[in-house]
Amino acid sequence: MYLNLATSATVSAAEPQPSEERISILFLGDNGHHQPAKRFVELQPALEDRGIDLKYTDSLKDINPETLAQFDGLMIYANSEQIDPETEKALIEYVEQGHGLIPLHCASYCFLNSPKYVDLVGAQFQRHGTGTFRTKIAEAKHPIMKGFQGFESWDETYVHTKHNEKNRTVLTYRVSDQGKEPWTWVREQGDGRVFYTAWGHDSRTWTNPGFQNLVERGVRWAVGKDPGIAPNFPPEQAGLVTAFDRPMDVPETQKPNKDVKPFDYVDVGAKIPNYTAGARWGTQEEPMSLMQKPLSPEESQKHLVLPEGFEAKLFASEEIFDGGKPIAMTWDAKGRLWMCMTLDYPNELHSSGPGRDRIVVCEDTDGDLKADKVTTFAEGLSIPTGIAFHDGGLIVQNGTETLFLKDTDGDDVADEKKVIFTGWNMRDTHGGVSNFQYGHDNWIWGMQGYNDSHVVVQGEEQPGFRNGFFRFKPDGSKLEFIRSTDNNTWGLGISEEGIIFGSTANGCPSVYMPIPNRYYENVRGWTASLTLHSMADTNKFDPVTDKVRQVDHHGGYTAGAGHSLYTARNYPEPFWNRVAFVNGPTGHLTGAFVISRHGSDFSSTNSFNLVASDDEWTAPIQAEVGPDGNVWVLDWYNYIVQHNPTPHGFQTGKGAAYETDLRDKRHGRIYRIVYTGEGAKEDNGWQQDLTKASPEELVATLKNDNLLWRRHAQQLLVERGETDVVPALIDLLSNDAMDSAGLNVGAIHALWTLKGLGALEDPNSDAAQAAYASLKHKAPGVRRNAVQVLPISPASTAAILNSGVLNDVDPQVRLMTLLALADQPASDAAGAEILAMLSKPENFRDRWIPDAATSAAANQGASFLKAVAKTDKVDDALLKLVAIVTENYARSGPTDTVADLIPSIQNAQPQIADAIVNGLSNGWPKDKKPEITAELDESLATLSAKLPPSTRGQLVRLAVNWGSEKLASQLKELVASSLERLENEDLNARQVQQLAREIVQLNVKTDPPVEVELLNIVGPQTPGEVTSAIFSALGTSENDELGTYVLEVLPTLTPAARKDAISLLLGRPAWTNNLLSAMDSGEIQLNELALDQRQALSQHPDRDIRKHAEALFMRGGALPNADRQKVIEELWTTTEQKGDPAQGKLIFKRECSKCHVHSGEGSKIGPDLTGMAVHPKSQLLTEILDPNRSVESNYRTYMVATVDGRVMSGLLASESRTAIELIDAEGKKQSILREDIDELRGTPQSLMPVGFEKQIKPEEFTDLLAFLTQRGKYVPVPLEKVATIVSTQGMFNTKNSPVERMVFDDWKPKTVDGVPFQLVDPEGTKKPNVILLNGPQGSIPPQMPKQVSLDCNMPVKAVHILGGVGGWASPLGQTGSTSMIVRLTYEDGTTEDHPLKNGVHIADYIRRIDVPESKFAFDLQGRQVRYLAVHPERQEMIKSIDLIKGDDQTAPVVMAVTLEAPE
């Protein structure tokens, strides 16, 4: 069977189609987890445009001589394990007779029964990890490799076996710390040729232009054609010239120095925490007592392991510091080292009164490149963590305040002090502010840790922020929070063109900041997620010792600090503006992260270490490029790095750090990491003093090859404030040169210096004209910055459009151009240009450009919408953007432009018109009314006639509110026709709700009111779901009289409809007062209110309603007893009596099922109760009657009052800076914009209300407990509270890996061999749902627990396990090794172990691999899950079951456990 999929693709002008004869290739796939058909669709168009035709088959029947003879070659991408002799013969002979074979990736694990096939390919797949990497070219002169420089991609890291080196030439290797793995090779056999590459796991590689180019080359060579016809890769494309676009060869690592003394140790007693890898945060094994003694600076230096060609040179140490430890460093304009020295960190923060910490200046006065003078600039500080220079003084982050300190008399001692900011939260002293850096934009940038700070700026408290990037004006006049990271944040890096990067302490060692929050927040109604996550391919680090002690994220950057890029020119060129340095003090290293870009986005990989040591005291916390152009490393040199959690047996001190006398207060070292290899510059110092430089010299320094000096020169020129240097700065802009890193640094800094001097404010000035001209500069970094500095002016908008930067070849330039257009004045031309650029695949598929385009389009407002109205290209992404832009436009009530917009929508595509009208209706303020001219009224009427009924109602309501006479006449007609449809048409509940909501929102004044008309539809014959839909629609009404209307019809409602009515009455204060009055009069009984409704009334935001409700409850005895323990004791007998499970099930369905699931019945809001039978009745009684005794944070209740008077309560399901989402006790989700919230209040209460004893009788409690603890033949064990990982994300190497996921099509109960299994629903990726135990491989298993415990409390015939798989399991690893132990603990305390063996019970998850003692159960999108059973030796009460990691290399997975009771 063949699939002929012809798909068009754009061919670059730089890559003409080949003119020679076309090549025909048969592509053999299968139906396995690699999804060959999808990969075919990704590759086929690209090769078709290059003259290579692919035809797809997934049938081995097509591998026969007759079919193969039609093709020049055979491409295989499949995992078919068996091949019959006849097919094998046809394939081998086909190749040997002179044809080509192109096996890709998994084809090396195909036809496992055929040694001849394995030999033909050249090797067989054995195992893999994952990662982002590039390969090393071994045969650059081979015809395939000429003009090919390689590419980078995420992929599986294949390792092969059964190598056949005969007639094989390896073209590239994948190089890692395990050695060199052959990756791409060619073979010749008979008259035929074979091209193989291990690249190609998923679309990330198959859509990579580098992979497509390599495959084209391989195909051409394999079929005997010229591979040189393929274009060079990377293509020589003007503009894509930055360091991020180039390959980088990873430097070799030096061998450890053998000329070292043995370590000395001292027994300190049980004082050294021993946190357990993979266990719950803070869990420890037995404390350690043997502590290494510190080494001298000279001896410790010998233990540093660096890349080849580098040398560590000590600059300063505790020998001259005179007390304290260095915690932060920077250099002044004289090249002198400034450091924060601390004794107070971490336990002794002095918020008031003098501390013990200092700022010191370290100098080399004799030219030997070592510090010999230390001056204390300021003292009496407490935990200073950041320093930056300004106006001849120093900005210091001093605990809870930001200070400006200045020396006014020249003695290098501060004598002037000013408080700039206060309000920094330091409840946890390692969650504060750090990393002050002077940015290109003339602001000071910094990072805020996870403390929630409400900073006071010029007397005004700012909104709180935590975890992320911020910046402030050096004079303290403004502060802006830029963007959130996902945890405690200690690293900042700024590239030479001003791109912002960072790192966090835990699990996110490298992060890119693409777009500041303000561009999202300026778009009203936009609810995008603003939290940034790691761009690194792994969190794992690579220490040179196993003496690594960590709290969490074991084996990785659990204390990641810093992210400075290499921004000088001493190091080899591949480092320039490309390699970032992230410190891992717990691993005794500074890692080097190589940054690559993908469109406007970036990724990074920790390819090597700049510094690593086996000295347990070595703890690098900062690595920055110093004044000499080398990286300087601040070694905190401390044996104790861990801050919290507090280990068992220790006390928590101030600053949330545990107290120990082992924390060092004396040592610290500063090293210069000097390049001494081939082409190294002479290491002869940095004699320069910019404070004495002339203006001309400062301008010249803007071209210096070290960013540190350029920053100082720019800052000094800006703070000097004189415009006499403007002509010289303009001259720098006229220089169109570009260095080998694709930069013109002088022009970049000239632009920002002009900006800082105010020379660009007049768009007609020479400086502004030079900035406009720089939009066409040869260097993309200059264009990127030029677009940011332009004056806010229509002239700037025009210049941007005229220059073509919106369609620049460099995606960073396009990104910044869109952000510039979000700030510049709007224009019709800009709106049209933004729309046009969004239609290009390289833009709408980009990670960040659509977000920037949304902000830019929103700024254009009507101009963009009028352009959209003319387009005939409509897709979901565009409609989403239009909805956001329109609502933002509408929320300002633009009465001056909407009259021009309405006519333009009349001829728009229906979906576009619908989206615009929806946006206008949703966002338009009621008090903003445009002038209704005859023309506008006619346009509204014309548009209305073209809209579908649902959207027409929205337009009519909007237009009537504006004052439209033409549509006012339609309003009552529209309502009447809609009511008629409701009464006469056979509509489903969803249609009823939509139509009724539109009627209500039209807000037409009728007699009787529309709310009454809708209530009249509800009757005994009305289906319950329709009644619920009508009440739901009525909830959107703003009519305060609705409460009285509802109470009038209440007696006629069915019990279910009464519940809906009561829920409705709780929606607005006026209606709630009606409800309480009805309860006063007895029309509504207290027992008609559900417990959660009573709880909502007791916590109501309106104080009067709250008091009224409490008085009612008190009179009616509805208030629960506050003494929950007393209630538990009163009902304790229900746990000792025998109940009726059948009756208990009815009680569950009546009282519990709206929030809980049992055996598949009910709603999943609270915990699943299916497996409660393993818990004793006493425990269940306590949790039911006292739900607030231990409330998980995700089950707490929040109360919300909106500005339009609605009141809601429920679980806070998700939130962003601009919106929240609530789930109420009925399971309904509601999204609420923050700007619509009048009050948001979290409560300490669970959504499970207190007072359940008021709902049911004691005997019903007995029945309910009997039902919940009923044990049939099979009892599912609840895994919700012990699950360790989310299986819908990658579980072994990276969360982003789709192949590492185990995903069912649904999470309903499953059955294997008659045994039922209860799965945990991960709710997307929110909730851990499976047990992954600890394992030594990968980045994630080392963080998992080594043991989990399950309640049992019953005799067991068999323990049934849905799992039987693991990472790095059979066929990998040692057959017969212990993967997992199932330990049964009987009631008498004795234990019984059942080991599960790799290759016997356990197999790898990656595909179906059978082992004898477990059974294949389910195919999970190519992955497998298996079934096995453990049989206890004794039929006695088992108290608990422990799943314990064995001693092998596997990482076992358990998805569900079911107990079988004895007969």
From TrEMBL:
Pfam families on file: DUF7133, ThuA
The yes or no answer to whether the keyword Heme is present is yes
Task: Read off the InterPro entries from this record.
Answer: ARM-like, ARM-type_fold, Class_I_gatase-like, Cyt_c-like_dom, Cyt_c-like_dom_sf, DUF7133, Haem-bd_dom_put, Membrane-bound_put_N
Q: Which UniProt key words apply to this protein? A: Heme, Hydrolase, Iron, Metal-binding
Statement: the UniProt record of this protein carries the keyword Manganese: no
Q: Which GO terms describe its molecular function?
A: electron transfer activity; heme binding; hydrolase activity; metal ion binding
Domain Cytochrome c residues, every copy: 1139-1272
Protein name per Swiss-Prot or TrEMBL: Glycosyl hydrolase
Q: Which organism is it from?
A: Bremerella cremea
Recall the taxonomic lineage recorded for the source organism. Bacteria, Pseudomonadati, Planctomycetota, Planctomycetia, Pirellulales
